[in-house]
Amino acid sequence: ATSLFSKDAIESLSNHFIHLLEQLTEDSSKPYSQISLLLPTEEKQLLHDWNSTDSEFQQDIPLYQLFEEQVLKTPNSIAVVFEGQSLTYSQLNAKSNQVARYITEVYKKKTKKELLPGTLIALHLGRSLEMMIGIIAVLKSGGAYVPMDPSYPQEMINYILEDTKAELILGQKSISDNDDM
Question: What is the model's pTM?
Answer without folding.
Answer: 0.65
